[in-house]
Amino acid sequence: MKVLVTGHQGYIGACMVPLLQAAGHEVIGLDSAWFEEQRFGDDRPILLPTVGGDLRDSKVKDLRGFEAVVHLAGLSNDPLGDIDAGLTHEINTVASVRLAEMAKEAGVRRFLFSSSCSTYGAAGDAPLDESADFNPVTPYAVSKVEMEQALAELADDDFSPAYLRNATAYGVSSRLRMDLVLNNLVAWAYTTGKVRLLSDGSPWRPIVHIEDMSRVFLALLEAPREVIHDQAFNVGRSEENFRIRELAEIVAETVPDCELEIAPDAGPDKRSYRVDFSKLESTFPDLDLQWTARRGAQELLDAYRAAGLTFEQFDGPGFKRLGTIQGLIAAGRLDDSLRWT
Ligand SMILES: NC(=O)c1ccc[n+]([C@@H]2O[C@H](COP(=O)([O-])OP(=O)(O)OC[C@H]3O[C@@H](n4cnc5c(N)ncnc54)[C@H](O)[C@@H]3O)[C@@H](O)[C@H]2O)c1
Known about the structure:
Layout (H helix, E strand, L loop, with lengths): L1 E5 L6 H10 L3 E5 L29 H4 L4 E4 L6 H6 L1 H21 L4 E7 L22 H16 L5 E7 L1 E3 L10 H12 L1 E4 L6 E6 H13 L2 H4 L2 E5 L5 E3 H11 L4 E4 L15 H6 L9 H15 L3 H5 L5 H10 L11
Parallel strand pairs: 1-2, 1-3, 3-4, 4-5, 5-9, 6-8, 7-11
Antiparallel strand pairs: 8-10
Helix pairs in contact: 1-7, 4-5, 6-9, 6-11, 9-11
Bound molecules: nicotinamide-adenine-dinucleotide (NAD).
């Protein structure tokens, strides 16, 4: 298939694009390149033909000829959403809905949207399946809900959107992010000898490796249309729901000689959700998701060791989405609407 992957230069895109290409798909990218200079480990640039840069400037003609769109681009986490909820709305909802409308107009038949389990927001201890109520508690999660709802209205015989509600990602990528829980905990432990909890550790958080996540996107790309049409799928594994403090314990067991520390300013975290992934498992029985938190922690530790990661690198803006963007604004390279100057 000829596939447009938006956000191909991001943390997940850098892992997903080679996987789609290896499966024989022709991949074209679309990315505003905010994180282009950020490299971890494999520091080759991500070379891919593209159709334009900023999603907000896309035109119908950019979408012609594609059989599918995988939509990853956006302001990708809660802290980014909190600096300017208006921008999150503008990019993650308004421009993203327009992209889907243009894709439909251009004759693209399949639109895979990278949504999030954070749409379930503040939930209890019971595992939530795809029929659970949304309860978003951040502008980021609100944008995911709005986009899913808009896509559902566009679904018809010629246009099949699907909503992949991803668990929190982890794993090594050339566009590494340190603001994700497992990546962050292992980096703290490796660079300081302490596993540092920023909340009291009680919230539930399902996690999924970016390679497993990418394999789910590939499965939905190749599945019969009726299987995915207007369907939501929680993306992750039921065994991989953890309380944050359980993740901290796994990290403490993985990284030698480290101790658990609760950050002095640790406050409660409203975001807690435990997720039921059985729909994905029963719809795609051959999808054998392979990663576990323990194996992921070891992978991260090995990569940090190989790269000689220092606390200054880890704690600096380079591997944090919010820090990188704030740095580009402070340097006058991005304006306040996140456009290149
Ligand atoms: N990482 C996770 O834990 C996770 C979990 C659930 C859902 N998701 C979703 O998956 C998607 C990808 O996440 P990620 O972790 O790779 O994020 P990321 O921030 O690493 O990558 C996002 C990419 O989108 C690009 N982008 C942002 N705004 C753009 C615009 N206006 N026009 C063009 N490109 C733009 C950025 O330059 C970046 O390369 C996001 O939509 C995110 O919300 C991520």
